[in-house]
Amino acid sequence: MNRHFPRHLWVSLLFLSASWGQIVPDRYIVELSSAPAALRMRAQGRGTNRPEVERRGVEVRSEQARTRLAIEQEGGRILESADTVINAIFVAMPAADAARLARIPGVRHVHPVRQFKPLLDHAVVVHKIVDAWNQIGLDHAGLGIKIAMIDTGIDNTHPAFQDSSLPVPSGFPKTNNVSDQQYTNHKVIVARSYASLLATTDPDPSARDRQGHGTGTSMAAAGVQNAGPLATIRGVAPKAYLGNYKVFGSPGVNDTATEDAIIKAFDDAAKDGMDVINLSLGDALAAPLADDLEDAAIANAASLGAIVVAAAGNTGPDLHTIGSPASALGAITVGASLNDRRFAATATAGGTRYIATPGSGPTPAGALTARLKDITTLGDNGLACSPFAAGSLKGEIALILRGTCFFTDKIANIVAGGAVGALVYTDQARPDAIIMSVGTQTLPAMMVSYADGIRIKN
Fold first, then answer.
1. pLDDT reading at 299 higher than 90
2. What φ, ψ does residue 249 adopt, rounded to 5°?
C-alpha cells in the first residue's frame, strides 16, 4: 500500500505570554501624581479635541521638567516619557539606588518594567463579519478608521497593505524619525519604533517588522483582498488605515516588549488620533488594578474616544488566566474561538487522509509517495532506536512509534536503512501529534496522532 505525503500547508498563530515577575533589570516607570492630558480634558469636559490634547500634553511635559532634573540628580538616566494617557517618566537606574526615586516630590509610584510577549488567536465566521460586510459593503468596511497596531511592526510591502485609492489623511504619515517614512504608504500611515526602550540593544531599531506577528495581526484587522496559496483572504476592515507602533525587536534579541515601550506607543497612538488601538500581546497575570499602568492608560485613551481591543491570551480556559492588558476595565477583551476550517498537512493511506504534523526539518518541493514499511516487520520493536541494515528500508517510508530515543536518532537510524521518509505516530500516553525536532536531519518526516497511527498500522 502506498502512503502519500502532500506538500504541507501550515500557519502558526499562537504565542505564549510571559509570566508575571519577568521584569527588565534596572528599569523603572516613574508614575507622577499629577494627571495626564487625557484626564485633564475629561475633568474639564473638553471631549476629544485633538489640538487641545496636544496643548495639554505640552503642559504635562513642562511640569515633568523639575522631576526629570531630580531623577538625574539621584543618578537616574531618562529614557523617555509619556504625557497623554499616563503621566510617567521612563528611567534606567541601578536597582540598589532605585528606592530613592520614590522619595522625589511629585512621584506617585515607581513600577518595575515588565516584559510582554505577542498573542494571536483568530476566528471569522463566528463573529458574523461576513454579515457586516454584506450590510455595509466591502468598499465601506473600515473606511476612514485608523487602527493602531502595537505589535512587532508591519511589513508595508506586503500585498495585503497596498491600496493607492486611500488618500493619506492630513498630518500623516507619522514617524519617530525621517528614515522610517519608507515603512509607510497610503494604507500604513504611521511607522513608529520603540526599539530604544527594549531590554537589549537591537541591531535593527527601525519600524520594519522582523518577526511577522504584527504583519499577521494587521492582515487580520485590515488587510486588503489578496489571493494567497490557500485561498483568497482579506482582513475584517479592508478600507481602514493602519498605524505601525513597533514595540518588539529582532528575533532572538528582543522577543519580548517592555512595559515602558508599550505605554509610550499607547501614548503616541492616543495623540495621533487613532480610532482603534489593538494589543495582541500580554503578561500572563495582571497586576492589581490600582498599580496596573495599562489599565489606567486604556481608560484614559477611551476617554479620548479610542476603542481599545486586547487579546485574552493563550493560557486559558481556566479561571484567572486572563492577564494584562486584557484585564483592563476599559478594554474589549477578545478570547480565542474555533474557526470554521483548518489548514493542515496530511498523510494519505489507502485513500484516507489523516491530519499530520511536519517535523522541523526541510520539506520536499512536492508530494512524497512511497511504500510504507512497518518497522516491526523487520524485527524492531517499532521505536527505531537502533540503526537498520543497509537497504532494509530502501525507497520506503518507515512507520515509527514515538518514544524512548530522540527523533533525530530515529531519523538517522532509518536513513541508514535507505528510507526516503518517516511517518511517526505518537504513543497512548501522549495521544496528540507534535512538531518533531529533527535537528540537522533532512529526511521528510511527519507525525500523526496515536489513534490515527494505530488505524494506519492495522
1. no
2. -115, -145
CATH of domain 344-457: 3.50.30.30
Amino acid letter at 309? V
Q: Cell 520614590: give the residue.
A: 102
Identify the band that residue 330 occupies on the pLDDT scale cut at 50, 70 and 90.
Answer: low
336 DSSP assignment? -
CATH of domain 23-115: 3.30.70.80
Q: How many CB atoms lie within 10 A of CB 128?
A: 11
The whole-angstrom distance between residue 216's C-alpha and the CA centroid of its chain comes to: 8
Q: Which residue from 353, 304, 303, 229 is spatially nearest to 49, judged by alpha carbons?
A: 304
CB 393 within 8 A of CB 422: no
CB 214 within 8 A of CB 223: no
The domain segmentation of the chain, as residue ranges, is: 23-115, 117-334, 344-457
Q: In the predicted model, is pLDDT for residue 365 greater than 80?
A: no
Cβ burial of 48 (10 Å; 0-12, 13-18, 19+) is middle
* pLDDT of amino acid 323: 59
Asked if 248 and 214 count as a contact pair (C-beta separation under 8 A), the reply is yes
Note the CATH number of domain 117-334: 3.40.50.200
